[in-house]
């Protein structure tokens, strides 16, 4: 496994812009969003977990889609980026799927 490399300031800015754009368009999906939020903050899974009061393993399980986080955990993660937990109309998700094909 390659060693984790801290992103440059420009890479971090780019990651944050892309993340915000995808969130606004309704195409940012959980659990991918968790890893992207963490990476855009320039943090390892361990650092991210410590900040949220979680273990590295819990973060890894959330990012891989194997965990079933509580609403409280989802809110904590989203708050880091000014996001909240909510519903996205299926039409928005369907439109994005069609556009990708």
From TrEMBL:
Molecular function per GO? DNA binding
- Sorted alphabetically, which Pfam families does this protein's record hold? HTH_3
Which SMART domains does the annotation name? HTH_XRE
PROSITE patterns associated with the record: HTH_CROC1
The HTH cro/C1-type domain extends over 36-88
Q: Does the keyword DNA-binding apply?
A: yes
Query: SUPFAM superfamilies annotated for this entry?
Result: lambda repressor-like DNA-binding domains
Q: Which UniProt keywords apply?
A: DNA-binding
Would you tell me the protein name for this molecule? Answer: DNA-binding transcriptional regulator, XRE-family HTH domain
Q: Which organism is it from?
A: Pelagibacterium luteolum
């Amino acid at each position: 496994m390659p060693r984790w490399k801290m992103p440059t300031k420009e890479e971090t800015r780019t990651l944050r812009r892309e993340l915000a754009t995808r969130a606004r368009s309704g195409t940012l999906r959980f659990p991918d969003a968790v890893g992207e939020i963490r990476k855009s903050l320039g943090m390892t899974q361990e650092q991210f977990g410590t900040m949220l009061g979680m273990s590295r393993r819990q973060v890894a399980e959330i990012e891989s889609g194997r965990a079933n986080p509580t609403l409280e955990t989802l809110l904590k993660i989203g708050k880091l980026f000014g996001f909240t937990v909510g519903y996205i109309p299926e039409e928005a998700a369907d439109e994005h799927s069609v556009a990708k094909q």
